[in-house]
Amino acid sequence: MATNDACANCGAAMQGEYCAACGQRRFRPEDRRFAHLVTESLGTLTDLDGRLWRSFRALMLQPGRIARDWIDGRRAYWISPVRLFLLANLVYFLAPVVTDLNLPLHNQVRGEAYRQLLPERCADTDGVPRCQWGGQYHSRLTEPLFMRKLARERDEAAARDETFDAPGFEHRYNAQSGAIGKLLVIIHVPFVALMLWLVAWRRKPPRYYAEHFVAALGLVTFVLVLMPLVKPLLWLYVLGHRAIGLPGAGVATIFGYASLAVILAHFALACRRCYDSRWPAATLQGVAAFLALGMASIYVYRPLQFVLALWTM
Ligand SMILES: [Zn+2]
Predict the structure, then answer these.
(1) Torsional sign, CA 206, 209, 210, 214
(2) Whole-prediction pTM
(3) Which of 60, 170, 205, 257 has the fewest Cβ atoms within 10 angstroms?
């Protein structure tokens, strides 16, 4: 076959098997057949599949590997870090577990405010007052919004001569909050990236913000995948505790600390790989990234989730 003919896709002169201008493979007469259509489609699928599992394994077992390769320009080997995050985000919210990222209404408002919605659930039992909890740090700030929404819905129900459906209100809020949360998880990433930029700013060579962002994306994706795994493990343990008498006291606490340790270790290892840090620096960077994640969750994610869910429900 000639080596200098024109590319069938863009018309550039061809040298070798692939077009240097557009990347299309050399067009052959047999490419017009049906068998080619099938094998090509299957090839694309299995290639995506292979890269997906490879990327997933690296995400869980080789902290910072994908981000480091991305920074070094070795990118086609992995699924794009953004796509990997979106996949984890999707799977996370399919997993039917309530975790720190999907807070129901009673976790988002103070007990006093919850009492305004559902007084019967807050009735004193045997003289012990209930609904005493303090809510989130943002609760005092955002409570007027909640109260206004509540008053408006009450008025609307009264105008229609209906009784206000308080449990329905809570149910609608929780559903909306879950939907909003799905779109909002990514809000953690720029803050973790900012922290990585701060704690790694003197490292050579200097990194672009986008590179810190990709490193942060890897950390948040790891947490997203890990969190739904912890609860089923805990349930399995509790079952084992009932069935064969494994020690039961404080198991939830132990699981909490264990997953915290796993996350911190992962973060430190990832920082070590991404920034060529020595152990002490990598540990500090990992802890800082974790603090940024927690603070973004408490001070940004939760209030935004609350306000947006109220606003759009
Ligand atoms: Zn071409």
Answers:
(1) positive
(2) 0.82
(3) 205
